[in-house]
Amino acid sequence: PSPSPSPPRHQHQAPPAMDLTQLIVQFQRMNAPTFSGTENPTAVLEWMKELDKIFVVLPLPDRQRVSLAAFQMKEDASDWWIELWARRPEAELHALTWEQMKVMVRNKFLPQSFWDRMEHEFYHLQQGGSSVDEYVRTFTRMCLFAGDAVNTDAKKARKFLKGLNQRIRELVGSHGPMSYADTVSRAQEVESCLIPVVPIPSYPLASQPPQAIQYAQPISTVPPGSSS
Protein backbone atom coordinates (compact mmCIF):
# COMPACT_ATOMS: atom_id res chain seq x y z
CA PRO A 1 0.00 0.00 0.00
CA SER A 2 1.14 3.49 -0.77
CA PRO A 3 2.27 5.49 2.25
CA SER A 4 -0.34 7.76 3.70
CA PRO A 5 0.27 11.42 2.93
CA SER A 6 1.91 13.35 5.70
CA PRO A 7 -0.24 15.97 7.35
CA PRO A 8 0.24 19.44 5.93
CA ARG A 9 2.82 21.49 7.77
CA HIS A 10 1.76 24.62 9.51
CA GLN A 11 3.11 27.56 7.57
CA HIS A 12 3.80 30.84 9.31
CA GLN A 13 2.28 33.62 7.34
CA ALA A 14 3.06 37.29 7.78
CA PRO A 15 0.21 39.23 9.35
CA PRO A 16 -1.81 41.23 6.86
CA ALA A 17 -0.50 44.73 6.31
CA MET A 18 -2.39 47.44 8.14
CA ASP A 19 -3.97 50.21 6.13
CA LEU A 20 -2.88 53.79 6.76
CA THR A 21 -5.77 54.51 9.14
CA GLN A 22 -4.82 51.58 11.38
CA LEU A 23 -1.20 52.64 11.24
CA ILE A 24 -2.03 56.18 12.31
CA VAL A 25 -4.00 54.89 15.30
CA GLN A 26 -1.17 52.61 16.40
CA PHE A 27 1.39 55.34 15.71
CA GLN A 28 -0.40 57.89 17.85
CA ARG A 29 -0.82 55.41 20.68
CA MET A 30 2.97 55.54 20.92
CA ASN A 31 2.77 59.26 21.69
CA ALA A 32 4.11 60.31 18.31
CA PRO A 33 5.03 64.01 18.56
CA THR A 34 3.83 66.72 16.23
CA PHE A 35 5.91 69.45 14.63
CA SER A 36 4.52 72.84 13.62
CA GLY A 37 7.64 74.60 12.37
CA THR A 38 7.02 77.50 14.76
CA GLU A 39 8.96 76.12 17.76
CA ASN A 40 12.57 76.85 18.61
CA PRO A 41 15.06 75.44 16.06
CA THR A 42 16.07 72.43 18.14
CA ALA A 43 12.45 71.21 18.21
CA VAL A 44 12.78 69.75 14.71
CA LEU A 45 15.73 67.62 15.83
CA GLU A 46 13.82 66.39 18.88
CA TRP A 47 10.82 65.61 16.68
CA MET A 48 12.87 63.50 14.27
CA LYS A 49 14.70 61.78 17.13
CA GLU A 50 11.41 60.73 18.74
CA LEU A 51 10.06 59.46 15.42
CA ASP A 52 13.25 57.47 14.88
CA LYS A 53 12.68 55.77 18.25
CA ILE A 54 9.13 54.87 17.26
CA PHE A 55 10.24 53.50 13.90
CA VAL A 56 12.63 51.15 15.68
CA VAL A 57 9.70 49.61 17.57
CA LEU A 58 7.32 49.91 14.63
CA PRO A 59 9.38 48.85 11.60
CA LEU A 60 7.76 50.15 8.45
CA PRO A 61 8.72 50.69 4.82
CA ASP A 62 9.92 54.18 3.96
CA ARG A 63 6.74 55.14 2.15
CA GLN A 64 4.68 54.61 5.32
CA ARG A 65 7.27 56.33 7.51
CA VAL A 66 7.12 59.40 5.29
CA SER A 67 3.31 59.38 5.30
CA LEU A 68 3.12 59.10 9.08
CA ALA A 69 5.73 61.80 9.63
CA ALA A 70 3.88 64.12 7.24
CA PHE A 71 0.63 63.42 9.12
CA GLN A 72 2.31 64.68 12.32
CA MET A 73 3.21 68.00 10.70
CA LYS A 74 1.00 70.90 11.72
CA GLU A 75 0.61 74.60 10.90
CA ASP A 76 3.65 76.06 9.06
CA ALA A 77 5.34 72.69 8.64
CA SER A 78 2.23 71.10 7.15
CA ASP A 79 1.64 74.06 4.82
CA TRP A 80 5.23 73.88 3.59
CA TRP A 81 5.09 70.13 2.99
CA ILE A 82 1.78 70.25 1.11
CA GLU A 83 2.92 73.16 -1.07
CA LEU A 84 6.25 71.47 -1.75
CA TRP A 85 4.67 68.29 -3.11
CA ALA A 86 1.90 70.07 -4.98
CA ARG A 87 4.58 70.98 -7.53
CA ARG A 88 6.24 67.56 -7.76
CA PRO A 89 5.18 64.27 -9.36
CA GLU A 90 3.47 61.78 -7.04
CA ALA A 91 5.94 59.06 -8.02
CA GLU A 92 8.76 61.15 -6.57
CA LEU A 93 6.98 61.35 -3.22
CA HIS A 94 6.38 57.60 -3.19
CA ALA A 95 10.09 56.99 -3.79
CA LEU A 96 11.16 59.33 -0.97
CA THR A 97 12.92 57.68 1.98
CA TRP A 98 12.60 58.73 5.62
CA GLU A 99 16.28 59.72 5.70
CA GLN A 100 15.79 61.94 2.63
CA MET A 101 12.73 63.51 4.22
CA LYS A 102 14.72 64.34 7.37
CA VAL A 103 17.34 66.12 5.29
CA MET A 104 14.65 68.18 3.54
CA VAL A 105 13.03 69.14 6.86
CA ARG A 106 16.38 70.07 8.42
CA ASN A 107 17.31 72.22 5.42
CA LYS A 108 14.00 74.06 5.67
CA PHE A 109 13.73 74.64 9.41
CA LEU A 110 17.39 74.73 10.47
CA PRO A 111 19.22 77.44 8.50
CA GLN A 112 22.97 77.18 7.99
CA SER A 113 23.53 80.16 10.29
CA PHE A 114 21.94 78.19 13.12
CA TRP A 115 24.17 75.15 12.46
CA ASP A 116 27.25 77.38 12.37
CA ARG A 117 26.34 78.98 15.69
CA MET A 118 25.62 75.66 17.41
CA GLU A 119 28.83 74.10 16.08
CA HIS A 120 30.74 77.09 17.45
CA GLU A 121 29.07 76.70 20.86
CA PHE A 122 29.84 72.98 20.93
CA TYR A 123 33.47 73.59 20.03
CA HIS A 124 33.83 75.94 23.02
CA LEU A 125 31.64 73.92 25.41
CA GLN A 126 33.04 73.79 28.97
CA GLN A 127 31.75 72.34 32.23
CA GLY A 128 32.16 75.70 33.98
CA GLY A 129 29.92 76.03 37.03
CA SER A 130 27.86 72.95 36.17
CA SER A 131 28.08 69.59 37.87
CA VAL A 132 29.40 66.69 35.81
CA ASP A 133 25.85 65.36 35.41
CA GLU A 134 24.64 68.73 34.11
CA TYR A 135 27.62 68.91 31.76
CA VAL A 136 26.80 65.41 30.46
CA ARG A 137 23.23 66.46 29.65
CA THR A 138 24.37 69.60 27.84
CA PHE A 139 27.11 67.71 26.01
CA THR A 140 24.67 65.01 24.86
CA ARG A 141 22.22 67.60 23.54
CA MET A 142 24.95 69.59 21.77
CA CYS A 143 26.33 66.46 20.09
CA LEU A 144 23.41 66.78 17.67
CA PHE A 145 25.29 69.69 16.10
CA ALA A 146 28.81 68.32 16.31
CA GLY A 147 28.99 66.51 12.98
CA ASP A 148 32.32 64.80 12.36
CA ALA A 149 33.77 66.15 15.61
CA VAL A 150 32.22 63.25 17.54
CA ASN A 151 31.56 60.67 14.84
CA THR A 152 33.61 58.04 16.70
CA ASP A 153 33.54 57.01 20.35
CA ALA A 154 37.18 58.03 20.78
CA LYS A 155 36.54 61.55 19.43
CA LYS A 156 33.49 61.90 21.64
CA ALA A 157 35.44 60.86 24.75
CA ARG A 158 38.30 63.27 23.98
CA LYS A 159 35.93 66.20 23.41
CA PHE A 160 34.07 65.47 26.63
CA LEU A 161 37.32 65.22 28.59
CA LYS A 162 38.60 68.50 27.14
CA GLY A 163 35.56 70.39 28.44
CA LEU A 164 35.78 69.15 32.03
CA ASN A 165 37.03 71.48 34.74
CA GLN A 166 40.81 71.35 35.10
CA ARG A 167 41.12 69.31 38.30
CA ILE A 168 38.61 66.67 37.17
CA ARG A 169 40.15 66.60 33.70
CA GLU A 170 43.62 65.98 35.13
CA LEU A 171 42.49 63.11 37.36
CA VAL A 172 40.34 61.48 34.68
CA GLY A 173 43.00 61.95 32.00
CA SER A 174 45.65 60.30 34.17
CA HIS A 175 43.98 56.94 33.50
CA GLY A 176 44.71 57.14 29.78
CA PRO A 177 42.29 56.80 26.85
CA MET A 178 38.89 55.34 27.73
CA SER A 179 35.56 54.88 26.01
CA TYR A 180 33.09 57.74 26.22
CA ALA A 181 30.92 55.85 28.72
CA ASP A 182 33.93 55.08 30.93
CA THR A 183 35.14 58.69 30.72
CA VAL A 184 31.75 59.95 31.92
CA SER A 185 31.63 57.38 34.71
CA ARG A 186 35.16 58.21 35.84
CA ALA A 187 34.42 61.95 35.84
CA GLN A 188 31.35 61.40 38.02
CA GLU A 189 33.36 59.28 40.46
CA VAL A 190 36.22 61.78 40.62
CA GLU A 191 33.81 64.66 41.23
CA SER A 192 32.33 62.80 44.21
CA CYS A 193 35.83 62.58 45.75
CA LEU A 194 36.60 66.28 45.48
CA ILE A 195 35.81 69.02 47.98
CA PRO A 196 34.38 72.08 46.19
CA VAL A 197 35.70 75.44 47.30
CA VAL A 198 32.81 77.92 47.27
CA PRO A 199 34.12 81.51 47.03
CA ILE A 200 32.23 84.35 48.70
CA PRO A 201 30.94 86.45 45.78
CA SER A 202 31.54 90.17 45.74
CA TYR A 203 28.54 92.51 45.50
CA PRO A 204 26.48 92.73 43.36
CA LEU A 205 25.95 88.99 42.83
CA ALA A 206 23.86 89.42 39.67
CA SER A 207 26.73 91.09 37.85
CA GLN A 208 29.13 88.19 38.39
CA PRO A 209 29.61 85.81 35.46
CA PRO A 210 29.37 82.06 36.24
CA GLN A 211 32.74 80.67 37.25
CA ALA A 212 34.13 77.19 36.94
CA ILE A 213 33.91 75.22 40.16
CA GLN A 214 37.22 75.18 42.03
CA TYR A 215 38.29 72.22 44.13
CA ALA A 216 40.52 71.74 47.15
CA GLN A 217 42.70 68.67 47.43
CA PRO A 218 40.56 65.59 46.89
CA ILE A 219 39.44 63.42 49.75
CA SER A 220 40.87 60.61 47.68
CA THR A 221 42.19 60.60 44.16
CA VAL A 222 41.08 56.98 43.84
CA PRO A 223 37.41 56.76 42.85
CA PRO A 224 35.14 54.56 44.97
CA GLY A 225 35.26 50.89 44.03
CA SER A 226 38.79 51.12 42.61
CA SER A 227 41.32 48.66 43.96
CA SER A 228 44.28 50.88 43.13
UniProtKB/TrEMBL annotation:
Transmembrane regions listed in the UniProt entry: none
InterPro entries in UniProt: Retrotrans_gag_dom
Occurrences of domain Retrotransposon gag (ranges): 68-166
Signal peptide: none
Pfam families per record: Retrotrans_gag
Domain of life: Eukaryota
Entry protein name: Retrotransposon gag domain-containing protein
Species in which this protein is naturally found: Striga hermonthica (Purple witchweed)
